[in-house]
Here is the input.
Amino acid sequence: MTLPRARLAGYDWGVLMVSLVLGGVAGYLGLLLGMRLLLEPRIVSETALRLSKYTVLVEEVLKQTDRVALPSGVLVRPENLLVQPKPSAPGRFERLVQLAMVREFGVNRRLQRDQPPLQDPWGGHWVQLNLGKDRAGQSLWLYQSERLSNSIWYLPLLRILAIAMGGLGGLVLFLRLKVERPLSRMLNLLGEQGVAVPLRLLPEEGIAPIRLLSLRINRLLERINNTATARRQLLHGLTHDLGGPHARLMLRTEILCERLDGGNGEVAKAMAMDLERLRSLTDQLALLGEQELPAERRQACALDDLCGRIVASHPCQLIRLGMPRLLVKLDPDGLERALNNLIDNALEYGAPPVQLSAVRQGNQVLLRVDDHGAGIATDTLLTMPGPSRSNDRQRQRHRGLGLAIVERFCLDHQGRLALLEAPSGGLRAELRLPVLLSAQDQS
Here is the structure.
């Protein structure tokens, strides 16, 4: 099956364009709202103040002199000389300025915005003067140019900036929803997977490259799940097939032990011991084929009590226990099986006494099993608990199934197994387990 190319699909481009358009519209509407609530009242008030002062001043001057005597900068025209002989209805801004002039300064005048061709590049307003009519029967209008601070020349620029900022916000939202959130969810799910199978598949969401990444990761997870299932089935079948011949050999060996004596009897007893060891190895293979540790098998327990029961099953002169009072949440049967394997290895391949201790390190517990044997070579420690080297102790008798079970127990609890050199010169098996219960968990 051919996988799609890692680039944006048509749907992703559509969502991106919709995000940009909606962001631009939101930015433009935000600009209009901001102007209406913040900028417009200030401009209206300032324009009303200038027009009121200028109009009253010119009217007082015209009461004393004729308009031809006004300075050249003061533009007063009769109504028939305006661009539009009949002034159009004032716009919203002009109505607001008229109301402000009346309300704040008591100046009630008609107001009209200058129409093209403009008297000033920035625009302006015509204000009807309260002087009656001139000789031609026309009312006089005073022109007031717009100040730069009150001009709307910059509004197109503000609109462009608002739309651009809104589009940028839409792009950020698109990246947040379609890129960052799917990646964060994918990383969180991968971090929570642990080693238990079947591994949960990832949601295939986000843009096309992220969906493709999720698809390929899911295929890898499915391959891991299938491999783990096939391995469990193989181990279960192997242990089942070994059970029948092993039981028959044990029965025949017991018969030989009863009928033979002398040297032949010793050989038969040795065969019985080897068959017993074979049974132990078969049981360990069956344990490796078990389903990974489910969460419901974990329970809160006192570590010192649990280890005390394990030590009590061995001769007291062989085991030394130094365990603080710690509350942990783990699989007690799994821990008992793991510690028994480590103690058996220490007694068989090392030398007593075996020291069983624990150290608290943050929210982790370090379980240590030390023996007083000769230890193993440092270069061999680097590969443990993998396949043993030719110079490892008892290589022909020791194949590492017990350590594999211990390592599996650690991985099921998101911990790890380390083989180190013990202070006594022997071997130290250290289980680092993040299973310590906090005070909140204990309550």
